[in-house]
Automatic annotation (TrEMBL):
Residues covered by region (Disordered): 29-52
UniProt keyword Signal present: yes
Stretches assigned to the DUF3502 domain: 447-514
The name this protein goes by in its record: DUF3502 domain-containing protein
Alphabetized UniProt keyword annotations: Signal
Compositional bias of kind Low complexity: 29-50
Superkingdom of origin: Bacteria
Amino acid sequence: MKKKLVSLILAAAMLGTLIGCGSDSAGTGTSGAADSAGSTADSGAETAGALEVPENPDDWPVIAVQSLSYDMPDEAKVEEALNEYLVSINAGAKVDLIGINFGDLATQMTLMLSDNQNPLDIFCWRFYSNVDSCVKNEQCISLEPYKDVYPDLWEMYPDKVLKTQQVSGIQYAVPSVDSYATYEVYALRKEIAEELGIVDRDGERITIDELTQIMKDAKAIHPEFSYMVNTNDEPVIGINSLGNPNWLGVLLNQGVGTTEIVNLYETQEWRDFCYLMKDWNEAGLQLDDPLNNERTITQYNNGVAAGCYLGGYSADYIKALISYSPYEPVEFQLTDLVGTSSSVLGGWMVSTVCKNPDAAMKILYLMATDEVVARYMILGIEGHNYTVDENGIARFPEGVDASNATWNMNGPWYYPNQCLSLPLEVEMSTYYTDMLDAPNHAKFSEAMGFIFDSAPVYDQMAACTTVVAEYRDALLYGLVDVDSYLEKFNEELKAAGIDEIIAEEQKQFDAWLAAQ
């Protein structure tokens, strides 16, 4: 049962988690959202229900499930073990794990989600698309009819998180379990922090002015390094972009406690930030030639930068995430623990080409709720692909590491419920229990789940996007005179129609809030 896409590249996938990159799962909309959502929901409601299980497992449907393990030697073994377990619990369906290809993901996924002969039954929109687009492209079915069939599934999630996987109030995806909220830290190489005498401040909350001074002090003793990789960090800037990477209408304070959509580029907050970036650039803190240089954690790992932004739900978690780095960090917290739509990093769907959606939904339910199913998919076979130490940490077998493993175990965050797995090769035994507890301590944006339909202002969006591309990065990296450049920037944004965009966003947002 081997159906493959092409090859797997995971390094780039991790960067979005580690470096604040301003992306949002919601995306922007196009016309016809309500009609598309309604028709898909109706078609699903006519046939959905609890799975009827044939007595003979040979008669069970085989559900094709997207997997991170492309072309791994143990695919057949893991599939066999997983399916034996599914038979033992009388699940009523078996699984065919489908390796994915990050290098050609968009093309291959689009083809498989329209293939009636060899359908991909269960898939994740992460790195491929977003909930809104999958619905409008009629690639997924409504999961509303399954709320009564699997009530304990939906009870696992905060209401705000479920809303991020809805369109027009209809549930289309099962969220990937995560902390649903992150905060940003500044990570400085430990040996430099020791020279500065600030190692004992590890984990301390600091202001942006204190961060500036730390970087300048570090630069004074080690001028060979840069100390800032990427200033395009939404939490540090303090905005919820509503899914628009060009920030054409945002909520300040990351959307916590505010429902007023504003033009960031004409605020005092943005002007002050631009002056700060100018200061950082003139002090030599930023990367050389930032507009033409890779601005990722790679620059920290390869020794070009001695500091960078990182994000996660706790200091220990962030350190565990980058334990592979040759440089141990000291971390300084910069923002609150906040959840926005972009904090929900994935969602799992049943495709419209699926021939047995009831069976697919049963498998998806088990992926999210059954520990054994989750661990087979995430870790493979215990005793063969991994061992478990006395602290409950999964370890590679002797002589095995990520480079020669026969099952890909490095992407637990991709699956429906990583918290049913075990932490892999870290020293943090509370890795997943703390993750589950994080939402209890988080603040959430008022716009969690809001999706803006940009169709009424399509022309204005296109024009403003062009203006942003011309002006914003130069301001973000302190390369130009702030006053004159910002004045031209705002004049051109006004002429391109940013006020109309924000008025339409506010109108839709107010209507969405009223419907909650």
